[in-house]
Amino acid sequence: MELDYKSLVLLLWYSFLAIVKVIFIAAFGGFFTRSHLLSSGAKKDLSNLVFYLFTPCLLFASVSTTADAESLLRWWPLVVFPMIWQAIAFAAGHLLVMALLPALAPASSLPLLSSSPASVPHLQRSKREEVVKCLVSSLVFWNAGNLPLSLIISITRDIEPFASDPTATSRGVAYTSITMTYLSLMCWSVAYNYLRPSSPSPLRLPIGADDTTDDGDAGPLAYGQHKKLDDDNDDGRRSAAEKATSGDKKAVAASALPWQRLAKELFTPVTIALAIALVVGLVGPLRSVFHEPGAPLKFVSDLTSTLGACAVPIILLVLGASLSNGPQALRISRWAVVGIVGVKLLLMPVIGIAMVWTASRWGLLPDDPLFLLCLVIQASSPSATALVVITEQLGSGSGMMASLQFWQYLVAMCSVTVFIALSLYLFV
Questions:
Q1: Tens of pLDDT along 87-143?
Q2: Which pLDDT score, from 0 to 100, does residue 184 have?
Q3: Confidence of residue 81 (pLDDT cuts 50, 70, 90)
């Protein structure tokens, strides 16, 4: 399909709007933080609400309505292709880290968080691990929320030949929802446990404390001193009793049996909500009880939809709060940013388009251009904004993650548009 001038302008405009919505909501988070209306402690509380309440509700509301056996079997590429892309991104992330560390990460650049020389090797290892996990996860986990969905809805409503197809929008939302379900599951289960610090550190402040090194993330690929986000003496500070309680909880967690730790890591509120949603979606009678008009448990579906709608805006507020001093506050190496942006927004979309084009030529994909377009949009999307909430909730790496996402979303305003236009030319 050759895009006419009007369609190209619309495509550029909708891609711009989709990214600007993300940036504007995040900007409110930064403004409230700098105005001392959103404290460091409140930011962590919001992260906990997202993890324990809003995201489980969002996933239950979306998965239980879209996950049925027929769709999962017929639309298997919407899960398998992102799975392959994640494996490629994981390998590319480690290769990128291996290439960057020798040149950009002298041991002297690591921050000394303690005056004890004996603690330096441990800190070097822990900070190196934290930075590697942040960089790799920012490549592996795609945006699974508002960005792909808003792009699909806008394109199917206003750009031909989809605008003249009355079923295009509903099909596009259904396709995107399947991929969103898989990516959300991976983000809130695999990414959550991957980003979790490997072992409790006696030098690490409790998660609820006002830890100025938490968002600094000055590790092997970062340098300089991180400015404190808030000058208010009371902002984000916890009492000594709260710190002791947090330390006791960590000690109990560290002394738990291996199977108990594994069960705690696997059975999070998000994975439990996903399991329940899959059961409701795949079992016809249960699906009717929750989602049919006038059904006895329809109010549960309405309630979870209402609460779930709060998840994405709050995630973006936390993202903006983590960037309240701007991306340069963390002084992340420009080569790390260039590498992440290049792999995520240039290399992976090219690989995605090549795979979709090849599979389409071999007859492995449905004969629906919108199906192919949904795959390309997902491959072209930046990192999941939920990663910032996860790192904030874990108390490890939120500053670096937020800064990496800032640059990704700026570049995505152009890159996503280019790859969507290319996919329309190839597949429509």
A1: 999 999 999 988 877 644 443 343 323 334 444 344 466 677 888 888 999 999 998
A2: 82
A3: very high
What pLDDT band is residue 199 in, cutting at 50, 70 and 90?
low
How confident is the model at residue 421, as a pLDDT? Answer: 84
What does the alpha-carbon distance between residue 336 and residue 333 come to, in Å, rounded to a whole number?
A: 5
Which of 134, 66, 56 minimizes the C-alpha distance to 100? 134
pTM of the model: 0.72
Q: Is the pLDDT of residue 14 over 70?
A: yes
**What is the rounded CA–CA span in Å between residue 276 and residue 284?**
14
Are the C-beta atoms of residues 175 and 78 closer than 8 Å to each other? yes
Using CA atoms, how far apart are residues 267 and 381, in angstroms rounded to an integer? 28
Q: pLDDT tens digit string along 31-46? A: 898 888 888 788 888 8
Letter for the amino acid at 90?
F
Question: What are the CA-CA distances from residue 10 to residues 283, 287, 421 (Å)?
Answer: 41, 38, 11
* Encoded tokens for 278: 């899959």
Structure tokens at 199: 């072992």
Check the CA dihedral 15-151-83-391 and report its sign: positive
What's the pLDDT score for residue 123?
A: 45
Domains and CATH numbers, the chain: 5-110+118-196+211-427 (1.20.1530.20)
